[in-house]
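WARN no homologs supplied; continuing
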Amino acid sequence: MPDSQGSRERRLPFSHAGACAVAAAAALACPASAEEITVSSCGMDIVVSEPVSAIVTLDQSSTETVIGLGGAGRMAGSTQLKTQIAEQYRADWEKVPQLTRDQPTAEIVRAVEPDLLVAYSGYFYTNQRVGSREELAALGVGSYISAVSCPEHNAPGMTSFDLLALDFTNLGRLMGTEEQVAGIVAAQEQAIEAASEIELTSDEPIRVLWLYSVFEGTPYVAGGPSIPGTISEVTGVANVFADVDEQWPSVSWEAIADREPDIIVLGDLSERGALGDTVEEKIAMLRTEPGVSFLDAVTQEQFIEVPGIEMDPSIRSVNTLNLFVEGLRRLGYAR
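OK structure emitted
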């Protein structure tokens, strides 16, 4: 990992560097020119003088989002795979350098001299991973975090899909793909509107458990501020852990039983390789865990399968909205 960026032959498009970047990170004023593009992300401004050209994505959700927004040709690398890349993005993804299929490190990322890092969560921006956002800004590297993961910096009342649309718009501005992004945002809005118009078949709340993964025997489920939480609200069902103010809280099997879900949504992460990632493994656990095996949702197989990666905020999340609506109809909970 180089100690200094001063030896770069390629000039980064960031118009602020060094002290000005650190000032922006601290929410201090920096002079801006009329040509600059400024995007706010999770409390920090990203300011560029021209569209970025060396993006590195720090997780699969961000990789597919950047590609889907027309940014494949502006990528210097992708990292961390949880499952197979979606078919519609695979050809473009194969043209992007795959820096690692595991979690990125500072050495791996900085070796390709990125001008923008994109992640769905601030989890990656620590000294134990790719470095703090302030450190990266001082090196002339922007750091984008999905607005879905930054509730304290968002306007009140915005749903997770509203925040995804904001992500798409921001990234489109940074990449110079605004026209393509506008069509994607419009298509997502149409899908949301259609999903909101379904007719549920029960007068009682339909209780839904969104089961993302099971790690070392502990279930991880969707809390309130999550994509599944918003899907629940859009379709009129009740996310049984909506009262938990985390995207993916860990819970006990007994806590799941106490919420008595009518439907269990199973996230499929088949290629990730950890026990409890596949749908089949999740079903086996549900059937053998004494705390939940007796639930009607388990014994009557009231399951809906979705790609686990689509439960994280990304350009693919709207597909899980559509799959959930189809599942409600298949199980007789909607028409």
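The first strand starts at residue 37 and ends at 41.
OK
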